[in-house]
Amino acid sequence: MADPITGALNLGSKILDKIFPDKNEAAKAKLALLELEQNGQLQEMVESSKIIQSEANSEHWIAATWRPITMLTFVVIIANNYILYPYLSLFWENAPSLALPPQMWDLLKIGLGGYVVGRTVEKTVKNHKNS
């Protein structure tokens, strides 16, 4: 089996070629990808992706669904504070607003980023194996 980092670099390089039609922009993006590999961040991303994939494929419902449940909870809080609350506050002086600490935004970014990266890698690898 190929080294996951080499596979991620090769796959990332192919994706970057498709995303950036300008060869100079693609070269800059590939350089950034190599820098991620050299400072160990690419390895961390690959390991995180493996964890997310194993959780998603788990037979235990809590292990497979805790990330989506957490993200949906964040969505409910954000929808309440930025959609429902402004509307309800027009008619109801004590409309409920939920406190949203700054760390929650960071967790939301990490959670969404991990999920998006994990799903993208999973789909790309599946398509790559099929071709």
Give the amount of beta strand, in percent.
under 5%
Give the oligomeric state of the chains in this entry, treating copies of one chain as homo and distinct chains as hetero: single chain
Mean pLDDT: 76
* Derived structural class: mainly alpha
Taking the alpha carbons of the first and last residues, their distance comes to 18 Å
* SSE pattern: HHHHH
Number of strands: 0
Q: Which shape, going by the Cα principal axes?
A: elongated
Estimate percent helicity.
over 70%
Radius of gyration from CA coordinates? 20 Å
Low-confidence stretches: none
Specify the biggest β-sheet.
none
Number of helices: 5
What this model shows, in words?
This protein is mostly helical and 131 residues long. It has a domain at 59-130. The protein is built from five helices and no strands. α1 runs antiparallel to α2 and α3 (41-56) packs across α5 (102-130). It is elongated and about 55 Å long. It starts with a helix and ends with a helix. The mean pLDDT is 76.
Give descriptors for this structure.
82% helix, mainly alpha, single chain, elongated, 131 residues
List the helices and strands and how they pair.
Elements: H1 4-19, H2 23-38, H3 41-56, H4 61-91, H5 102-130
Helix pairs in contact: 1-2, 3-5
